[in-house]
């Protein structure tokens, strides 16, 4: 094995090709994300950030190359194995996608039951743990519309944490939030990251990147540039 690659990364891509229909969105993508790393994903609108994230959580088929995510080989992952991969990753989108016709706790129970949890006591305990983690332990009985946008996003993050993922994939998680709430959501991601969960976060928010500098992957002209391998300026890159 080349020394450039670690023995046990959470995410590993080599020569990956990502397509939407007949369009090649990203070509020859090679990078790894280690356990507990925090990585930003940046690039202009349409440069391929969401397509890359979707490929990572097996929503978009891999068009070529080698890819493994939390130990699953995406080259030969049968459809029925996708839920097992999804249990080991957490996904956070820009629009919250909570079920608005049920309480916060019911939203979380829904996911736990769908991922095989049966024991009522354990379910209750896990819900209380994740809500505590995001600072909303009093919100279990509330309906989503009774919460602010920032609070709803915290619930989405709590939901992503239910099955103790090795990595969180976040697509513009602060896109709809005001600057103050954005900072507090970012603090939450950093806190989760400090306790060992890797994070890959797509964002257009340069202030956030400047304030909390981390490794950056930049999608540009069909390729990915990695700040861990080469220096690049963000100012002209977006
Ligand atoms: N479902 C789809 N079908 C066909 N083409 C798509 C689809 N989704 C995205 N594309 C195309 O793939 C390319 C990459 O889009 P993608 O959404 O990955 O970019 P992005 O960097 O996430 O953009 P944004 O910052 O606006 O979210 C674009 O040219 C887009 O038009």
TrEMBL record:
GO terms for cellular component: plasma membrane. PROSITE patterns: ABC_TRANSPORTER_1, ABC_TRANSPORTER_2. It comes from the Bacteria. The keyword Nucleotide-binding applies. One of its GO terms (molecular function) is transmembrane transporter activity. Residues 11-238 form the ABC transporter domain. SMART domains: AAA. Keywords: ATP-binding, Nucleotide-binding. It holds the Pfam family ABC_tran. PANTHER family: CELL DIVISION ATP-BINDING PROTEIN FTSE, IMPORT ATP-BINDING PROTEIN. Part of the ABC transporter FtsEX involved in cellular division. Important for assembly or stability of the septal ring. Belongs to the ABC transporter superfamily. This is Cell division ATP-binding protein FtsE.
């Amino acid at each position: 094995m080349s020394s450039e690659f670690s023995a046990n990364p959470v995410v590993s891509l080599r020569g990956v090709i990502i397509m939407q229909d007949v369009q090649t969105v990203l070509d020859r993508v090679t990078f790894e994300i280690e356990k507990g790393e925090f990585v930003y994903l940046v690039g202009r609108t349409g440069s391929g950030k969401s397509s890359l994230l979707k490929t990572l959580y097996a929503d978009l088929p891999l068009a070529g190359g080698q890819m493994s995510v939390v130990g699953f080989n995406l080259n030969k992952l049968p459809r029925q194995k996708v839920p097992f991969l999804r249990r080991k990753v957490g996904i956070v989108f820009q629009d919250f996608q909570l079920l608005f016709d049920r309480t916060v706790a019911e939203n979380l129970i829904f996911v736990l039951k769908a991922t095989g949890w049966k024991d009522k006591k354990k379910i209750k305990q896990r819900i209380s743990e994740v809500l505590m983690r995001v600072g909303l332990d009093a919100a279990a009985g509330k309906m989503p519309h009774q919460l602010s946008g920032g609070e709803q996003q915290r619930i989405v993050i709590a939901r992503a944490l239910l099955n103790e993922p090795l990595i969180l994939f976040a697509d513009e998680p602060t896109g709809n939030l005001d600057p103050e709430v954005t900072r507090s959501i970012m603090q939450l991601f950093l806190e989760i990251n400090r306790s060992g969960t890797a994070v890959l976060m797509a964002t257009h928010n340069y202030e956030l990147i400047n304030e909390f500098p981390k490794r950056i992957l930049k999608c540009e002209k069909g390729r990915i540039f990695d700040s861990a391998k080469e220096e690049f300026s963000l100012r002209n890159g977006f």
